[in-house]
Protein 1
Amino acid sequence: EFANPSVQLINCLAIEVFFYTGQENFNPWKLFAEPFITADAQIPRANFLKYLNAMGLLFSALPEFYWTQLFERMNQIFEHPLLLRCSPTDIMDLLNFRERFCTHTENMVCCFVAVVHSIWLHGSISHLQPFLVLIQTQLLQTIKNENQLLLAFQLIGPFLQRIQTESTKLLLEFVIVPYDLIARVDTHQQSFVNVDTIANFLYHIKYIVVGDAIRDRIETVVSNLHCEKLRSRLHFLCAKTDVSSSMHVQGSATGATPMSTTVNDAPNSNASSHGQRTASTSSMSMQYTAGSVPLQPYGASPQNFQLTTAMTTAMGSDGTPQQR
């Protein structure tokens, strides 16, 4: 019934956890997950990432009762002094677990991000849905600065495309969250430092994940932003993604300029042959207004044609003079 020995081992561990549940001083979260958040020295550093992955596998196999403490811990991390005191210019470095781990400078915030990603990576949509509820009920009131905003983006960002493939309804609820958080933070601070990072994330959501499904909400939030720099960066979020291509022809004051374009689906259009491209199913005609240069009839000889010739003498390669 098990695909491989690892899956069987995870199920055996889950059964052991069930057996010890209810006994005194037995807390699976504090036993298996908390040591990674606090970077407990008892975990061998050489196997830290393997243990972290195994922890995610275990909690993804356990019922919700066992991993709800994740969201209690999340509330504490969003108000952690290390996060609140960090300069916005250094926040992305603070949240970068990979770089911090390689340099032995990991902290509680980036380790918590790694724990959450490990559980959600192996879990299902049911592991992500409580995060949406938590934001809507509690974190929306807690998040007031740019550092907290970027932490929220860091937590949910890697999983948006997965939500897109598994639950469109849940996706539409999730993609509204970043704009609600930005609107909330914008009321508590005058400007944003990581403008490009925020803009890149939101443009990715629109053009890769959701398209124009929440365009009305985007327009409302962007137009009401107090931060001029961020508002200008997000200006094109309000543009439609399915804009049809158009032809822009710009002529000189004495040249021909297109005034209007019409497209006819019928193949037998009565439009003029000038500027017309005919296909088997459609035709396009363009109307021009001529400037000071009149259009010559087809086949007519050009007027005021003048040919000027000149002759020069030069030495050839064999030393003899040649005329050109």
Note: The radius of gyration is 33 Å.
Protein 2
Amino acid sequence: MDPAAVHTLVQEAVQAAIEATRIPPPPPRVIPFAVTPAGAGDAAWDFTSSTGLKIFVASIAPFAGLYDGNESELRDVLRKILQRAQTYGWMQIFFIANDAGVVRNLATEHGCLTLATIQTAAITNLRGTGRPHQATECLRQLIIGSVSAAIADKLYHHRANYTVNAAAAAGEGEAVPAPTMKEDGTCMLYELTTLVSVETRAMVAIILKKLANLDHERAKVQCGRLQLGDQRPGYCTPR
């Protein structure tokens, strides 16, 4: 064979071997679109990474000024919680179906939901290993860090309402697993709004009762004044 042809064949073989061992470039990274940090997708956050840790710390940072249970400030607190949820991708845990199957927003329509329906949704979230489980824990820590010691103490006394059994359901023929009781953020938020509403109604009832007693006492005083001016029996009979 012609030496030149042999050389050409050798060169082609060497080039083919080089091409076969060459590592192809990685495909371009697809960056998910997100309007806000941690707002893209429903995949669980990696809290063991530096980025995940930063997301966790920022998402549970307490609000400025501790909430003391004043009902006039409750709407603002709920608005701040919703804004935090939108920023860090918690919104899915706020949408809960009521007894009629209609989905309601826990932060804006809590009056349309019951504790039982929220607990049912909470159990589903806590039994999973996705973002909803992480989100409800972030919400719980945000609430605890953003309320006064007095409100935190009142919540603690009602902790049975926001503590649910997160143990996996037993399959057919399987033994019922031991309970795994966990505190849930959505149930805690519902308990907070309920607690504030109940205390406000109780305060209104007390004020109305005092006003009624005030009218009664005022009438007695007026009757006393009239009796001082006219001592005739039966002129004025205090109620």
Note: The two ends are 133 Å apart (CA to CA).
